[in-house]
Fold these 2 entries.
Entry 1:
Amino acid sequence: MFKKILIANRGEIACRIADVCRLQGIRTVAVYSDADKDARHVRLCDEAVALGGTFAKDSYLRADLVLEAARQTGAEAIHPGYGFLSEKADFARACQEAGIVFIGPSPEAIERMGDKAEARRTVQAQGVPVVPGSDGVVRPEQAKEVAAKVGYPVLVKAAAGGGGIGMQVVKDESALEKAVQSCSERAQASFGDGGVYIERYFTHPRHIEVQVLGDGRGKVVHLFERECSVQRRNQKVLEESPSPLFQNGANASLAERMYAAAINAARAVNYSGAGTIEMLVQDGEFFFIEMNTRLQVEHPVTEKTTGVDLISWQLRIAAGEPLTLEQSELAHTGHSIELRLYAEDPAKMYAPSPGTLSAFALESPNTRLDTGYEAGATVTPFYDPMVAKLVTWDTTRDACIGTALQALDKLVLEGDKPNGKPMAFNTELLKQVLDSAEFRSGTLDTHILERIK
Amino acid sequence: MATDVEAHITGTIWKIETTVGAQVSEGDILVIIESMKMEMPVEAPADGKILEIRCAEGQAVDEGDVLVVLEE
């Protein structure tokens, strides 16, 4: 096992990785931007290296500075967390060339799954169904023809990146040209690549994803699914495992086909480490959306229902230890719900609400709070609005909903904006979702928040 | 009548979508603020003419800062 690793991230995930390393006796190196010099992750690690800058592009995305920090501190490996450098094949390759282990899959696997057209071709070749859409980047002059073939409504999305930046739903041909243009501009500005895709827009899909672990030598196991249908602007708000669709053995053959598809997709790129295959499920059919070649934000709900520590396995696999988990021994028990606590105002179109936390505490049964903040810390406008993940678990879904509601009631989370007004959080919205008849029934789809609001 | 158009959130000016002297209609996007990885448009509160632009692309702004002055 490694003696020292560098954590190339911030916030809750950097803290969580540092915690796992502490338990395993691995020393940790934090990196931080100017805005994060007092951040919790910096204090949790054994050493810390300043990257300078505030915006991600001037700090956490600076591969050269991160690598230099690893060299300087003698870190043997780099854990990229999620976001930032986690899905940058060039960075993984630069690590390799520098003799530092990148804790994640090979640069080739990142590249093939990161290019959406290549990813579609790769999994289609394994018999995995994909969302009907353009095979590759659509030139503006082809857009009408492609959209007509796919069938309206269509989704116009950026070829590069992820997380829904620039994504737009187009109901008919009249709005297509403008949507393609604005999506392309946004993609160009965000990712330096203006390529766009067109695909079928589903009216009532569930977003379900399958967790896998691979050893890079052909062995892949799945760790069941996560239901991530509660989303705003294509960003997840609440995730759970198992999916209500598969509760108590329901739709077992669909679940098995999805697990098999996920394993085949991962095997196709000789996957190493933790990865997730995202799928849309509607009317008994499933379609591959993409593979995230990294740890997911919502990985704790898998950990709580399988008893497997995914970060620990990422470290072991990266260190060359054998993947000793056997599919037949993996079981899915109990229920877990993760709530993402965002500093944003759901009543004002989810307007971001940066500020300084004045109070932040939680003590509640069957609850874990993953966070990079504490009372007195500032949630700056430079990074994402997620203040914490509130992870709850219980024996059944109904019990877990109660546990989650109880945790929200006990949560103390307050802060002040720079102008002295109170910060906004999405806690009331989370309560409304948990308490809604639709969520409780388990028949949710990705539009649930639009109906609850 | 001159109207101050203020930033409704704390963040950074991502894009200025208007110019001094431009005639705008209520609801037109004047400025886009980026905050916490989201773009939030600042719209014209009424029809009018842009008198002044008091921000620059890349500039950090706080909620309540005046971004644009509009003559109704």
Note: The interface with chain A takes residues 8-12, 34-40, 60, 62-64 of chain B (CB under 8 Å).
Entry 2:
Amino acid sequence: MNVWMILGLMGLTFVLAIDQFNLTEVVYQPLVAGPLAGLILGEVEAGFVVGAAYQLVTLGSLPIGGAQPPNALMGTLVSLLWVKAGLQASPLAALILAYPWAMAGQAAVKYLFERNNQTVNRAVEAIAHNQPERALRLHAWAVIRLGLVFGSLVGGSALVILSAGPWLLAMLPPWVISGLALGGEMLRWLGVATLLTMMRDKKAILWIGVGFGLTWMFASWLAPQWLVPLVTLVGAVLVISQRSNPDAPLAQDEDL
Amino acid sequence: MKTFLKTRIAWRSLWLQASFSFQHMQALGWWAAWWPALKVHQPQLESADPQSLAHTRFYNTHPLFIGLVLGEALHAIEHGKSAEQLLASRDITMGPLGGLGDALMLVLIVPLSVAFSVGWTFQGSWWGPVMFVVVFSAIRLGLRFGLLNWAYRFGSTALLKFLQLQTRLKVQINRMGLWMMGVLIAGFAVSGLGVSDGVSPWVGAAGVAGIYAVFQTRVLNPRHIVGLLVLMGLTFAYFTQ
């Protein structure tokens, strides 16, 4: 265990936790956060695999109207800590082991949003007392506190997992690890199935079939990193070439 | 000067949710983004003035479209609208834009960024994360700055024009989302069960369809399904060890 490594991870967490709801709103996503954390922990390869797999899991669970899903950032970072503790051979097992931390991250965000009620009340009071600078400082403090809470949560978890993790993983029989890895693989089904439930207009179900079939057909001819963007572009061309309906009635609020 | 002000409030609007709270939501974030505009138009204004204080009341929309709301407000303040008139046209954006933003983000923007990047990431290439950030940020920042300028030009009719545009594109957006779901499922959700080589992709397709069917019954929530999948994996691994 390396002190600098843990401090670096805490610093990264501080930045990414702030990024969750502000600034770029993209760097914190597992697909980017995974490789970055992997770089710090010296597990770059696992970082890519865990990040990409976790991104597919979270596809259907973004925060909707302030309601919080299990925290993806916390899940990604702790997954990589478990990988570092000895799951290099089957990194996807770490996705399952990190799930409780994702729930803890969700609870932390809820707590902080509750806590911000007072902070904003104080800021509004400051505005009413002609102290705009103080209000802006409180506005900044709220987000710094989010970063600090996440940083210390990940730092504490790193100490526990990196010291007790190897011992714990050595106790588990190998079939448990491969079972967890299989569970981690299957989690991505949950992600896309959740996203499917968001699609309201079931009349257009043909489009999912054609996209699926086209990708499946050419899967053995072209590697997925080329095939998937290509078929996506084909779909975009097809969709854009369809006539739009200028006389459609105005949309009801959430109906897409 | 005007461009400077627009850039300044657009930058501050990136911190819209810095002090997000369940009670006030983005109220303070809005005030922090809007305060420079107030100061430019009324340099003598104090923050305790009712005109400023009115801007601290409850507000929540999707951050994707805050550019549109800010542009409308900027147009309103330049044409001498009162704070109450300005806030009235701001507050009606809460419902429509909030729901639309969540839907667009889930159905179109994130799947599109993922489609262009996740394959590279699985290959262990930095090109994946870079593509993800570039595609996502191009759409998001394009909407932020583009909508700000666009709404600034059209003023209070901007929201209506935008919703009409969205209504016209509704069908296309939905089809595109569904198409990408099919592509992503075939490309990444169904293939690559590395642990158990030889498992047919049909198992994956059946898995996605099965979970979707279970969701439709509304009996189990995602947490139950995580447990169920882990249990299935452990059982499979135990009997094939």
Note: The two ends of chain B are 70 Å apart (CA to CA).
